[in-house]
Amino acid sequence: MIEVTNLEKSFGDAHILKGISTTFEKGKTNLVIGQSGSGKTVFLKCLLGLFDYEKGKIAYEGQVFAELSEAEKRNMRAKIGMVFQGSALFDSMTIEENVMFPLQMFTKQSKSEMQDRANFVLNRVKLKDANKKMPSEASGGMQKRVAIARAIVNNPKYLFCDEPNSGLDPKTAIVIDNLIKEITEEYNITTVINTHDMNSVMEIGDKIVFLKDGLKAWEGSKDTIFRTDNEVVTDFVYSSNLFKKVRRMYIEDNS
Amino acid sequence: MQYLHNIGTYFLMIVEMFRKPTKWSVMKQLILKDIDDLVIGSIGIVAFISFFVGGVVTIQTALNIDNPLIPRSLVGFATRQSVILEFAPTFISIIMAGKVGSFITSSIGTMRVTEQIDALEVMGINALNYLVFPKFIALTLYPFVISIAMFLGIMGGLAACVFGNYASMDDYITGIQQDFEPFHMAYAFIKTLLFAFVLATVPSYHGFYMKGGALEVGEASTTSFVWTSVVIILLNYILTQMLLS
């Protein structure tokens, strides 16, 4: 579980996060949503320890990240998997080498053991025959799956995803969403996803945190988001006519 | 103030580069790859330029000696001095700032804009040690490239001298052996090692701390070439003043 308490972050005069508190539970897909510029990416980078913050605290299973020693931080980071918006695969390595990379850095496994594990997770993300390809030879969806494989290869306790569906067609986006959801439940990890994708919100949002102007404007789940009266949330989530209709039908069906 | 900030960040980067070392089994592969990319990959262009510039130095020296009282061996002597003292260590380093420096800045800069550096940092890896340190170690072999440049520059001079009938081969060989100061070689290699450090770190700084997208990677490469050249030329002046005066 990750507990965030009163988190504040500024860049110069720009106050980006203005006191966010929430918790992200184990075995659940936690979604952070909000408009562009609402502070989602800064929030995620604070969680990952890539940005220092001025006030508040972030605790992983009770351990406050900022108070850890360098060695403890390194150990903690070895438990974190991250899927970046652009996949962030290493261009100079094959897909298999990309997936093996965290194992090379953090374990003492032999090369064959690492290859076995890499192939296992590549199979898990349904990329059996892509081992020897370079990232540039893979499609956007494949690259995202490789990024997920790299993120989970070292059995992380926490999985972070920044816009995992951006640039993907709707069908591939659903495949990626389902994969993240399955992995979260299968390995019982704490997953935090930054997204704009309303399909993801409706499909896999065990917990949804809505940010607006650096503040938490609402939190709930994929079930409660249909019924919420919070206008800020409904304006954002149901901004398209299609989603307005879906919401109306859902409420009618369930009333 | 921005300049001071940048200089401070550069020196902090150098300190950080030596901290939290990457696993040796991984680092070994990175160093070998960088030796291939930065050192072995530069030998061809360095050899080509050195041979022909050596020839040009010889021709120009020979054409400017019109006094019959000056011995023709001076052509070999002047070529050797020019090549060993300035051309090979300094001129080749400026060319390397363009070739190797731009490569380093653009490759690290691309890793920055595509979040590959963030990925390393999230994993708890010291990205500066992982990316810059192997380049620094690989470029400690840079004096080897400069030795080749020295040899081929003098050989280019010999070829130009003999085929252009500016002086006999004996005169040229006498000239390159005349008044040889071993310290000049030490001076050239001290410069070379310091330039190697500059070639590894200044372009890395520009790539690592760049912000923006693909366009900015191009801008960072150009800026990196300019600043690497400026630092090499300033260092060249300071070292020459310190070591030769």
UniProtKB/TrEMBL annotation, chain A:
**GO MF terms, alphabetically ordered:** ATP binding; ATP hydrolysis activity
> Which residue range or ranges hold the ABC transporter domain?
2-238
Q: Sorted alphabetically, which keywords does the UniProt record give?
A: ATP-binding, Nucleotide-binding, Transport
Any one Pfam family here would be ABC_tran
According to the record, the signal peptide region is: none
Database matches in PANTHER family: INTERMEMBRANE PHOSPHOLIPID TRANSPORT SYSTEM ATP-BINDING PROTEIN MLAF, PROTEIN TRIGALACTOSYLDIACYLGLYCEROL 3, CHLOROPLASTIC
Stated name of the protein: Phospholipid/cholesterol/gamma-HCH transport system ATP-binding protein
Task: Provide the taxonomic classification.
Answer: Bacteria, Pseudomonadati, Bacteroidota, Flavobacteriia, Flavobacteriales
TrEMBL record, chain B:
Q: Name one Pfam family in it.
A: MlaE
Residue intervals passing through the bilayer? 38-63, 83-105, 117-138, 144-164, 185-205, 225-244
Annotated keywords: Membrane, Transmembrane, Transmembrane helix
The organism named in the record is Bizionia paragorgiae
- Single GO MF descriptor: phospholipid transporter activity
Would you tell me the Gene Ontology cellular component terms?
Answer: ATP-binding cassette (ABC) transporter complex
Can you name this protein?
A: Phospholipid/cholesterol/gamma-HCH transport system permease protein
* Family matches, as InterPro entries: Permease_MalE (IPR030802)
